[in-house]
Amino acid sequence: MKAKYGEITMLDFPAFTKERFPGVTRMDIRSGFFGDVTDDTMFFPAVNGRPGGFDPLSPSGRKWLEKLAGVLVKTGTRVQHISNNAPTDLAAYGSPEEDAKRKAGVAMAKRWLEGCAILGVKSMRMNSPRALGPSIRPNAIERGPGDGYPRNIDIVPLLDAAIESHKEMADFGGNLGIKVTIENHWGLAADPINVRTIIDEVNHPYCEASPDFGNWEHDHMLFHGLKALAPYAHTNVHAKYWDRWGEKNDVQRSTRIMLAAGFRGTFALEYEQGPLNGVEGAQYLYREVLAALTSPTPVVG
After folding, report:
1. Is-above-0.85 flag for pTM?
2. Which tens digits make up the pLDDT trace of 193-222?
3. Which of 117, 251, 256, 267 is deepest in the core (most CB within 10 A)?
4. CATH number of 9-137+163-294
């Protein structure tokens, strides 16, 4: 990759995108790529030997965001969506210490919303793989309390905490014009019904889904799970190829599922893993999405 395409920073990415993807002017950027790694002052202090993440409200971090905003204007591009892994513990509960973790996660989300408003961002995903409980969500127990029938007693407080977190984030994001989104990104969010439940309970125009074509636990979810989330998505979706699913990957079918649900947002190209390099993989996805957009045949099943 580096030998073929050279080395770029995030400040080079808008021009790189326009050059290689004709007509594409909107980008979905992951939070881990923000900032200048040669300047420690725009990052949080390291914890347990791990580097700290980008701080969008640090003086140097804000200057970097202003510089990126200038690049967007110069290149005629915009950041549509940020896939944010910075907020953590958004479903933490059960003790004052755990509630403090949840509040810290919400505060981090607000920090990103405030800092990145300068970019004109339309939406921001807040759930990292472990932000909404453990990456493998709790299961029902065989004999629940009281009536002795199967019951999932552990998932309810996780959902309650996640709902509270997203209410706070949606209120804050709404004041800035930025939607807070939930991706099927493991934990509680691996189940589309949980995602719908959180969004329905939050009941806020600035809280919605941002589905990913490939982040599913089993292959029956590839299309049925996407159909369940599609009506809840309006701003951004990850049009993904992942060789985990082999021949069952069908980007055109997934794109048409979104169109059939009335989706008119952006399809962000994400080549997770496969036989192509990242750039060629994204170009393949670009062609597949365009094919579906130009011939949106009815989706059956």
Report:
1. yes
2. 999 999 999 999 999 999 999 999 999 999
3. 267
4. 3.20.20.150
